[in-house]
Design a protein that fits this description.
single chain; mainly alpha; 676 residues
Length: 676
Amino acid sequence: MLPDLEKIIESITQGDQDTVQLLLDSYITQYAECFFFNTEVQERKKQRQLEEFRKNKVRDYAPDSDSDIDSDNDETDLLLRQRLATALLCFISHQLQPAVLRNCLHTLRILSRDRRALGPMVTDSALFTLANLGGISLLQAWPQQEEEKAEDQSATTCSEIRKRGDADAASLSVSTVLSFSTPVEVAGATTTSGSVDHSYKWRGDSGHVVLARGKKDTREENSEEEDKEEDGDVCRKEAMKVLCNVIYNSPRAQERASALRLLQGLWESLKQGICSRVSSKGQFYKLRLLFLLTALRPELRVQLQQERGVSVLTKALEQCVTVRWGGGYEVLSDSTAPPISKEMSQEIIEILKTLFNITHMLYRQQPDEEDAALYRHLAAVLRHCLLRSCDGEEILDELQGHIVNILSALPLTCLDVLLSVHVDQASHKWEGVNMDCVQTLLVFMDRRLNRGQKLKEKLTPVLNLLTESSRVHRETRHYLRQKILPPLRDVAIRPEQDTSLRGQLVCLMTHVDTDVKHCAAELLFVLCKENVSRFVKYTGYGNAAGLLAARGLLNGRRNSGDSQYASQYSSDSDSDTEEYREAKARINLVTGRVEVEQPDPMEGMTEEEKEEEARRLVSMINRLSRNEIIQPMAVTAEGRLAPLWGQMRSCTLEEEEDSEEDLDLMTVGRKEKQME
């Protein structure tokens, strides 16, 4: 492989485009699906790790990408890739044949997957070049002095590559790369098509985002379709793919992109395509780059929001799903509309992810009249998208997941448009209200529950959305209660063992993840109108204790002001079934079911023996608590748990020892009596 790279670099420096095209064709064919560049080293390291695991039974830390675990012995190969990237960036800045330019950009895309080889691609000149080739006109003009300096550096670099020997050229590349070898903030490997499929979550108020490791892009390359595209469109698309990889993999590139105002140029390009309603071949990758910039740079999220980002992206969303408006905020449904295609769904998902980036803090704000109208407009479009069908179950689940994320971020007062739709053709109605949207969310939640994977990431958004909607919308709460908490009939099994929606949610109330546990309990508590006795009735005291303890409701009384929505609930009347009334007296409140009657363990014991057992039990509990093995707790008047150290240690140590000696003497006396 080493002579091949040297030959490619030599052909580039000589300017022989035909030879460069042939050599790059071979390189692309060999490494199109490659995410690391030394297979032998990789296999040896994996084999060594496997042997160490078998020996020590301890698995080492798994790196984020395959390119990060290459051996240190492949430095020569790394330096050659850096030199190749530098040469290609010099080469594409000149006038090239379309096919040659396409191969150069494709090769740069392959090289950009390796984070260690990104040095030549994160310079200002490289970012400008890639942006221009991708059809992005940067609004900030590059100063003339900087441009001349960059041209001189580019010429010097190309000249050095041509004239110097391997050692000198390699050292030149190393000096360029070392200045950018900062740790990577995000985890993920780029995909075959030069982009990543991200999952994301916010950390605290700082808005820091973590992008999960990428998976294979669903927009797989289709050579036949690309052959039909114009050469200019193909090259622009390739340049955008390289730019996405560089921004994703390099914190330095993210910083420079922000300083160079890359977002402004990208946003102007997108707005032109949206306003002109002309389908752009590179629109998807521009949207993906917009998502990456707003996800990785908090200040760019603020900038995009100030640039009317919500309004423009909502318009782009309308164009993707062909929205027809009725009266007010109602989108007219069309039963003859075809399902959303796989390609279109990916474009919609990129729009939704960017919308989430710039709206995720809105639920904490009280919008003014103008903003409220904007968010209601967006919610109406999202409702229409939520009810549309897609080509494939996985695409539908992913699309609905992103819609739920945005709905959970919008102000609650703006979600009334989800219900304010005519009920003439509604398939689900309740109390004269169209419940199609709520039913879709319920089915979505059920589907996520059944999968049981990544519950915190996949399930908590829809649980929070249904909980908050039930608090502020009476019809939603009534509908969900009938679906999730219907009147009890079968009280012979534990609530968490039930296969219904109620049973699955109750089972989550004891989940190891506190966020999942809290969200599931909160939804059920709201559906019970935050009534403690009803909550215990449907879940069992053992399952409900966690939420009740956190809210200070263990004494069964609702504290005044414990919920700002408590006054909105109707009366606490509840309709019990005949089966429940008959079994109510025999229900164990802790487990929430009728337990099989057990024999009385104290049957046949005298009063003295019962008193002896009670004293022995108190002594054992006191000894365990004194040794800090257990900590006895009690419910205070405020309904919270408090330790019972004072009560359990009310007697002195001497009295405890005397009581223990008395118990021992009584035991010996009873045994002697039995022997007689």
